[in-house]
Protein backbone atom coordinates (compact mmCIF):
# COMPACT_ATOMS: atom_id res chain seq x y z
CA UNK A 1 0.00 0.00 0.00
CA UNK A 2 1.32 3.40 -0.88
CA UNK A 3 0.85 6.64 1.01
CA UNK A 4 -2.15 7.88 -1.00
CA UNK A 5 -4.12 4.69 -0.32
CA UNK A 6 -3.41 4.97 3.40
CA UNK A 7 -4.56 8.59 3.43
CA UNK A 8 -7.75 7.76 1.56
CA UNK A 9 -8.55 4.90 3.96
CA UNK A 10 -7.88 7.16 6.93
CA UNK A 11 -10.10 9.94 5.60
CA UNK A 12 -12.85 7.41 4.79
CA UNK A 13 -12.74 5.96 8.30
CA UNK A 14 -12.90 9.45 9.83
CA UNK A 15 -15.92 10.24 7.67
CA UNK A 16 -17.66 6.98 8.70
CA UNK A 17 -16.99 7.67 12.39
CA UNK A 18 -18.39 11.23 12.05
CA UNK A 19 -21.51 9.92 10.34
CA UNK A 20 -21.88 7.23 13.00
CA UNK A 21 -21.67 9.85 15.77
CA UNK A 22 -24.56 11.74 14.21
CA UNK A 23 -26.73 8.62 14.44
CA UNK A 24 -26.31 8.38 18.23
CA UNK A 25 -27.82 10.86 20.66
CA UNK A 26 -25.35 12.08 23.33
CA UNK A 27 -28.08 12.16 26.01
CA UNK A 28 -28.90 8.53 25.32
CA UNK A 29 -25.24 7.63 25.68
CA UNK A 30 -25.05 9.49 28.99
CA UNK A 31 -28.17 7.76 30.31
CA UNK A 32 -26.76 4.38 29.22
CA UNK A 33 -23.50 5.17 30.96
CA UNK A 34 -25.36 6.12 34.18
CA UNK A 35 -27.40 2.92 34.04
CA UNK A 36 -24.26 0.88 33.53
CA UNK A 37 -22.63 2.54 36.57
CA UNK A 38 -25.77 1.88 38.62
CA UNK A 39 -25.82 -1.78 37.58
CA UNK A 40 -22.09 -2.06 38.27
CA UNK A 41 -22.60 -0.69 41.79
CA UNK A 42 -25.45 -3.11 42.46
CA UNK A 43 -23.41 -6.03 41.16
CA UNK A 44 -20.47 -5.05 43.35
CA UNK A 45 -22.78 -4.83 46.37
CA UNK A 46 -24.26 -8.23 45.55
CA UNK A 47 -20.78 -9.66 45.12
CA UNK A 48 -19.75 -8.31 48.53
CA UNK A 49 -22.87 -9.79 50.18
CA UNK A 50 -22.29 -13.17 48.53
CA UNK A 51 -18.64 -13.15 49.57
CA UNK A 52 -19.65 -12.41 53.16
CA UNK A 53 -22.27 -15.17 53.04
CA UNK A 54 -19.70 -17.65 51.66
CA UNK A 55 -17.28 -16.82 54.47
CA UNK A 56 -20.04 -17.20 57.05
CA UNK A 57 -21.16 -20.51 55.53
CA UNK A 58 -17.59 -21.79 55.50
CA UNK A 59 -17.21 -20.85 59.16
CA UNK A 60 -20.48 -22.57 60.11
CA UNK A 61 -19.58 -25.67 58.12
CA UNK A 62 -16.20 -25.87 59.88
CA UNK A 63 -17.98 -25.77 63.26
CA UNK A 64 -20.60 -28.36 62.33
CA UNK A 65 -18.52 -30.77 60.27
CA UNK A 66 -16.60 -32.16 63.28
CA UNK A 67 -19.84 -32.82 65.18
CA UNK A 68 -21.42 -34.35 62.10
CA UNK A 69 -18.53 -36.73 61.45
CA UNK A 70 -18.39 -37.73 65.13
CA UNK A 71 -22.14 -38.40 65.19
CA UNK A 72 -21.94 -40.35 61.93
CA UNK A 73 -19.22 -42.57 63.42
CA UNK A 74 -21.35 -43.05 66.54
CA UNK A 75 -24.39 -44.03 64.46
CA UNK A 76 -22.35 -46.53 62.43
CA UNK A 77 -21.03 -48.03 65.66
CA UNK A 78 -24.54 -48.22 67.14
CA UNK A 79 -25.84 -49.88 63.96
CA UNK A 80 -23.15 -52.55 64.05
CA UNK A 81 -23.86 -53.15 67.75
CA UNK A 82 -27.60 -53.48 67.08
CA UNK A 83 -26.96 -55.80 64.14
CA UNK A 84 -24.86 -58.01 66.43
CA UNK A 85 -27.56 -57.94 69.16
CA UNK A 86 -30.34 -58.85 66.73
CA UNK A 87 -28.23 -61.63 65.27
CA UNK A 88 -27.71 -63.06 68.77
CA UNK A 89 -31.44 -62.69 69.53
CA UNK A 90 -32.36 -64.55 66.34
CA UNK A 91 -29.97 -67.39 67.15
CA UNK A 92 -31.30 -67.60 70.74
CA UNK A 93 -34.87 -67.62 69.46
CA UNK A 94 -33.99 -70.39 66.98
CA UNK A 95 -32.42 -72.45 69.78
CA UNK A 96 -35.45 -71.89 72.02
CA UNK A 97 -37.81 -72.88 69.21
CA UNK A 98 -35.77 -76.02 68.58
CA UNK A 99 -35.82 -76.92 72.29
CA UNK A 100 -39.34 -75.69 73.13
CA UNK A 101 -41.55 -75.60 70.00
CA UNK A 102 -44.52 -74.14 71.92
CA UNK A 103 -42.50 -71.32 73.51
CA UNK A 104 -43.52 -68.68 70.96
CA UNK A 105 -47.15 -68.16 70.13
CA UNK A 106 -48.38 -67.60 66.58
CA UNK A 107 -49.59 -64.15 65.47
CA UNK A 108 -53.31 -64.73 66.14
CA UNK A 109 -52.79 -65.74 69.77
CA UNK A 110 -50.40 -62.82 70.32
CA UNK A 111 -53.08 -60.37 69.17
CA UNK A 112 -55.60 -62.00 71.53
CA UNK A 113 -53.25 -61.66 74.49
CA UNK A 114 -52.11 -58.12 73.72
CA UNK A 115 -54.93 -55.78 74.77
CA UNK A 116 -52.87 -52.59 74.81
CA UNK A 117 -54.17 -49.70 72.67
CA UNK A 118 -52.27 -48.88 69.50
CA UNK A 119 -50.85 -45.40 70.19
CA UNK A 120 -50.05 -44.73 66.53
CA UNK A 121 -53.66 -45.12 65.36
CA UNK A 122 -55.67 -41.85 65.21
CA UNK A 123 -58.67 -41.80 67.51
Automatic annotation (TrEMBL):
GO biological process terms held by the UniProt record: lysosome localization
GO cellular component terms, semicolon-separated: BORC complex
Domain KxDL, chain residue ranges per copy: 20-104
Domain of life: Eukaryota
Entry similarity comment: Belongs to the KXD1 family.
Protein name: KxDL domain-containing protein
Originating species: Camellia sinensis
Lineage of the organism: Eukaryota, Viridiplantae, Streptophyta, Embryophyta, Tracheophyta
Amino acid sequence: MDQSEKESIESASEEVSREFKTLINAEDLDSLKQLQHLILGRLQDSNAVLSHFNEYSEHCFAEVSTDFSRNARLLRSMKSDLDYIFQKLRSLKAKLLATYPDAFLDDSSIEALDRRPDLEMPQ
